[in-house]
């Protein structure tokens, strides 16, 4: 009897609640408990996604670099992110520089009259030394400039023309009696300072460009001399000069400039 009594002993109330709860969970939850945890996608899918995104990123960077290389003109570090003012006028061409001293209006002794070929050639070459740029073009430069009186823009200069001005000035320095025959002592001091400026301007320009074009040597009178000519990659200066002339400003008439201080 005792055995039978133990066999039919009632379950504790806590056991009944636990059993009922487990049964209810099983009835109302269609997904087994061990399958309800969050599942990550297979690892190889993640790897594929990362590779695809990296390829897209690298292609974008390559495309940007390629377009920058196509659109950029020297100086690239300054104008790579914006359109250079003279970008449409820049074209590079192969050219042999001969340094010819004959039949050249820029070399030799100046003629007796200032209006002759030598001075005319230099005056014409330097005509577009001062040009007009827009407010937007000026905004990409580190410094302000003088505005046009009519509000149409600002004055600036292409460095190549300042370099040419310095060469002209040095050539004139060789012929001071012709060009500056009656200089005072103060004018002579200013002339020497100007020449020092031009030589330094020219020296820094040569170092800045660092042209690595090679010139070969030959024997002359028992000594090795480099040949006077060499082959270069040059800007098409005629095209650039045409662009500059389309914007040139004659600063001899100072009334075209705004903000002139009173003397």
UniProtKB/TrEMBL annotation:
Q: Which family does it belong to?
A: Belongs to the ustYa family.
Matching PANTHER family: TAT PATHWAY SIGNAL SEQUENCE (PTHR33365:SF7), YALI0B05434P (PTHR33365)
Write out the biased-composition intervals (Basic and acidic residues).
1-10
Question: Taxonomically, what lineage is the organism?
Answer: Eukaryota, Fungi, Dikarya, Ascomycota, Pezizomycotina
Q: Which Pfam families match?
A: UstYa (PF11807)
**Alphabetically, which GO biological process terms does the record hold?**
mycotoxin biosynthetic process
**Chain intervals for the UniProt region annotation (Disordered):** 1-35
Residue ranges crossing the lipid bilayer per the database entry: 45-63
What is the name attached to this protein's record? Tat pathway signal sequence
Q: Where is the composition biased (Low complexity)?
A: 11-23
């Amino acid at each position: 009897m005792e055995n039978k009594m133990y066999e039919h002993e009632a379950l504790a109330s806590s056991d009944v609640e636990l059993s009922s709860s487990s049964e209810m969970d099983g009835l109302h939850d269609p997904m087994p408990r061990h399958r309800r945890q969050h599942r990550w996608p297979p690892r190889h899918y993640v790897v594929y996604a990362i590779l695809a995104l990296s390829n897209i990123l690298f292609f974008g960077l390559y495309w940007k670099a390629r377009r920058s290389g196509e659109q950029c003109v020297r100086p690239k570090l300054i104008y790579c992110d914006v359109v250079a003012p003279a970008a449409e006028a820049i074209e590079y061409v192969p050219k042999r520089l001969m340094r010819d001293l004959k039949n050249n209006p820029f070399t030799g002794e100046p003629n007796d009259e200032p209006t002759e070929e030598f001075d005319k050639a230099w005056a014409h070459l330097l005509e577009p030394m001062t040009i007009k740029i827009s407010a937007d073009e000026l905004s990409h430069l580190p410094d302000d400039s003088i505005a046009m009186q009519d509000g149409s823009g600002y004055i600036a200069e292409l460095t190549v023309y300042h370099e040419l001005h310095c060469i002209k000035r040095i050539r004139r320095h060789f012929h001071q009696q012709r060009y500056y025959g009656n200089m005072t002592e103060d004018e002579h001091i200013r002339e020497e300072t100007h020449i020092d400026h031009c030589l330094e301007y020219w020296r820094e320009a040569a170092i800045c460009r660092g042209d690595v074009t090679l010139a070969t040597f030959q024997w002359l009178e028992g000594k090795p001399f480099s040949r006077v000519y060499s082959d270069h990659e040059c800007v098409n200066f005629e095209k650039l000069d045409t662009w500059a002339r389309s914007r040139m400003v004659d600063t001899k008439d100072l009334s075209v400039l705004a903000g002139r201080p009173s003397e």
